[in-house]
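Internal tracking record. Fields below are filled automatically when a chain is submitted to the structure queue. Please do not edit lines marked as system-generated. If the sequence contains nonstandard residues, flag them in the REMARKS field before resubmitting.
Queue: standard
Priority: normal
Entity type: single polypeptide chain
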Amino acid sequence: MQILITYIHYISIMVLMGSLISEYILLKSGLVKNLIKHLAIVDLLYGIAAVFVLTTGLFRWFYFGKGYDFYISNPLFHIKLTLFIVLAILSVFPTIKILKWRKQERTGENPTIEDKAVRRIITFIRIEFLIIIIIPLLAVLIARGSGV
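SYSTEM-GENERATED OUTPUT FOLLOWS
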């Protein structure tokens, strides 16, 4: 069971990163109006992957890792967990905007896509990239006993 949970955890991280890259590329294409449905699918995939990362991460923390006390007493773990929460919060604005555009599209309206909103989403995604790059580094440091 531990191997399966760990495998799903790593695959979910890859899907999370892949979907974020896809979302970034779609937004940078300048064809957002034509790609709203694709953006919505990719954003949904990102959200599902994030739930799997969180769920499997909690399983690893409570059942399969080095033990609850090892992690909870490590300040690097607190930073890692905080960064994951920040990552989740940063993803809310893009999701809300994409869902709004998708709803407008479904009801036959011409979606109101402001350049400012697209630029803001791209900025959020860039920050998310940075966070996603830092989290595995923290995981490696924690696994090696740093921060204890």
